[in-house]
Specification:
Mean pLDDT: 89
Number of helices: 1
Shape: elongated
Distance between the termini: 77 Å
Strand content: 25-35%
Helix content: 25-40%
Largest sheet: 5 strands, antiparallel
Number of strands: 10
C-alpha cells in the first residue's frame, strides 16, 4: 500500500466554486437587506412619532393643558412641549418642555428622510412664506385630546419616494397614506 496516499483538504477548484456560490448569494441578499433596514428605519420613526403624540395626548388629558408637537426641520427633531399660562407682550402663550420619567419627549428625524411638507388645518406651513424657508412648525393637542388636522410629507432621499402621514385627530396617531 505504498502508492496510496490519503487526500486531505480541498482542491483549488472546490474552494473557487464555494466562493462563487457565496458571492452570488451575497449579491442577492445585500440589496434585500438594505431595503429591509430602510423600511425598518422609516417604520421605527413613525412608531416613535406616534409614541410622542400618544404621550402628548395622555398628558393633555391628565393636565387639562394644551400641548404642542413641534417639528423642527432645521435641527431634524420633533419635540413635545406644553403651554404655560404665561402670555408674552405679543400675546403669544409661552411653552415649556414636557418632563416625564418614562418615554421620550423628542424624536430625531432620520438622515435619509427630508421633511417636504407640513400641512396643518389645510395650510401648507412649508410653503406659507416665500421669502424664507419654514424651519419650525407645530400643531396642537387640545386639553380634550383632539389634535389639529395634520399631514406630514416626507421624502426618502435615497429611494426618491414620498411618504405621506396623516394624523387621526381623535387618537393623535399618524397613519401612512
Amino acid at each position: 500500500m505504498r502508492g496510496v496516499h490519503a487526500k486531505y483538504g480541498f482542491s483549488l477548484i472546490e474552494i473557487l466554486v464555494v466562493l462563487a456560490i457565496i458571492a452570488i448569494l451575497g449579491a442577492v441578499a445585500v440589496p434585500s437587506y438594505t431595503a429591509l433596514t430602510k423600511k425598518t428605519r422609516i417604520q421605527t420613526f413613525i412608531n416613535d412619532l406616534n409614541s410622542l403624540c400618544a404621550l402628548g395626548f395622555t398628558q393633555a388629558l391628565i393636565t387639562h393643558t394644551a400641548h404642542q408637537v413641534v417639528i423642527d426641520v432645521e435641527h431634524r427633531t420633533v419635540e413635545l412641549v406644553k403651554d404655560t399660562s404665561i402670555v408674552d407682550t405679543q400675546g403669544i402663550t409661552k411653552t415649556e418642555p414636557v418632563i416625564v420619567s418614562y418615554g421620550t419627549t423628542q424624536v430625531e428625524i432620520p438622515a435619509d428622510l427630508e421633511v417636504v411638507g407640513i400641512i396643518i388645518e389645510g395650510f401648507d406651513e412649508m410653503g406659507r412664506s416665500t421669502s424664507r424657508a419654514t424651519k419650525r412648525a407645530w400643531f396642537y393637542i387640545a386639553p380634550s385630546g383632539i389634535t389639529q388636522d395634520v399631514t406630514l410629507k416626507l421624502e426618502d432621499t435615497s429611494a426618491q419616494i414620498t411618504i405621506e402621514l396623516v394624523i387621526n385627530p381623535f387618537t393623535a396617531q399618524f397613519e401612512r397614506v
